[in-house]
Amino acid sequence: MLMPSxxxxxxxxxxxxxxFSTRQASGLMRTDVVENKDNYTVTMDLPxxxxxxxxxxxxxxxxxxxxxxxxxxxQKDSEGRYIRRERYAGSxxxxxxxxxxxxxxxxxxxxxxxxxxxxxxxxxxxxxLPEKKYIAIEG
Length: 139
Hints:
The chain has helices at residues 13-16, 22-25; strands at residues 5-6, 9-10, 30-35, 39-45, 54-59, 62-76, 82-97, 108-112, 115-121. By secondary structure, it is mostly beta strands.
C-alpha cells in the first residue's frame, strides 16, 4: 500500500531514517572530474559543510579531501518539552591519485557556496633512466 507523501518524503521515512543512511549521505562529496589541456578540474559538492571543516592533504601522490559535518534539529513544544530531537555528526573523505610530481603549491582550491573546485595541473612523469646491464666476463 502506498503511503501519502509530505514534501516528497514518505510518512514513515523519518521514523526509520538513520543519520548516515545512503539517502542523506548520497548528496555529500558528489564529484565531477574534467580533463582539460593542461590540468584537471575537480568539482565536489559539499552541502552544509563550512570552509573551516574542510581539509585537503597531499601525501605520496594522493590527494585526500576530508570534511566534517554536524546537524542539529531540536524542536520543542510551547512548554519547552522536546517533541522531536535529531542530531548527528560525521566525517567523509575521498582520495584521488594525482601523481608523485604534483606538489601542494601546484594545486589551486576554491570553496564557494558549498562547492569545492580544485585545479590540478597535469605533470609528465619523470623520464626513467635506462638501467645499465652488464655482462659478466669470466677469466
